[in-house]
Amino acid sequence: MSTTYTPANSKPDQLLTGYISVRAPELKHIYNAIQGTTSVNELTNKFGRPTTEGLQTDHVEETVRFLNAVDLVESPSGDIRSTVERINQDHFRELPFEARLLYHCIQQDGRQTHFAAVYRALLSEGSRTVSEGRDDLKTVLKRETDYNFSWTKKKIDMWVTLCDQLGLITETDHDLILSPCRALLHDALVLAPTEANEEPDYNTVEVENGEFRRVLDWINDNLFAVYEERAGTPHVHPAIADVLRNMENVGVISLSSPGDSQNAVEIPPEDLDDDVRGNRRDATRISIHSRPDETAYQYPLTQHLTRQ
User: Could you tell me which residues belong to the region Disordered (predicted)?
Assistant: First the structure.
């Protein structure tokens, strides 16, 4: 497994949330279709949409540019409109595409950090859900982030749609549920390093007595935010705590705090009205077991295919 992350050459400057036609199913299918050096014409012919005026291909070309912008592909010829090939494919080779894409999004720098900053900003509200109203979301983002651009409805729509399809959030008619799907959190826990001097690794599913804070710190910095507060003893956000609690209840993970509680992580109670220091659970160790082969532990894209 390669642990070297390589930024793509000649990446576009367009904001990640500016790719308004990009959707997770097409990202996944087109990425999987890129085998070796691949002609973009081949991809547009395969994934274009037939219309009365001919083949519509703009969404395919925009998808390829987005994959380039997040360091999943680049062009060997230097022209992303001509040919494309995968890069970083040996980086966490077996990691599912959904988690891989979120990892790549959070590795971006400069203005492109805005994509990962959205979820962090929403968690700052301290609630399991936020109103799905775009004006409400825009208010949160303007207050909690500082970028030299406007948070338009189109940018927010793009982020919500993509992250819902990837399993980071769930959009309902009234709210955004901020809890990640169990498949995503399980993959994140398996990938994260659990001991000092250990590199992130997706080769070993079973983990015994790993360092829980080390695991969560890595996820927080490299995949998606998990903390409500990080100063002092880190406090897991209620939306993340709900998924951890569910996974523990069915035996997928085990949390413990043997002996001294150095490097503990605080987990809030299910009833947030009781969320005071004495009612929070301290955890220092985590054991991770295999993910169940059931629908509840599938990504949204897989669940959609299963239902068809």
Answer: 256-279
Task: State pLDDT tens for residues 137-156.
Answer: 999 999 999 999 999 999 99
The answer to whether residue 53 is domain-embedded is yes
> What CATH number did the domain enclosing 149 receive?
1.10.10
Q: Are residues 42 and 111 part of one domain? A: no
Give the rounded distance of the alpha carbon of 224 from its chain centre: 6
- CB contact set of 127 (below 8 Å; sequence gap of 6+): 178, 238
Residue 21 near residue 59 (C-beta atoms within 8 A): yes
Nearest in space to 40 (alpha carbons), one of 67, 19, 13, 17: 67
Note if the pTM is more than 0.70.
Answer: yes
Number of domains in the chain: 3
Using the 3D structure, point to which of 114, 143, 177 is the last residue of a domain.
Answer: 177
Residue in 188, 262, 192, 275 with CA at minimum distance from that of residue 235: 275
* 182-191 helix and 212-222 helix, angle to the nearest 10 degrees: 110
| Beta-bridge mates of residue 227 | 236
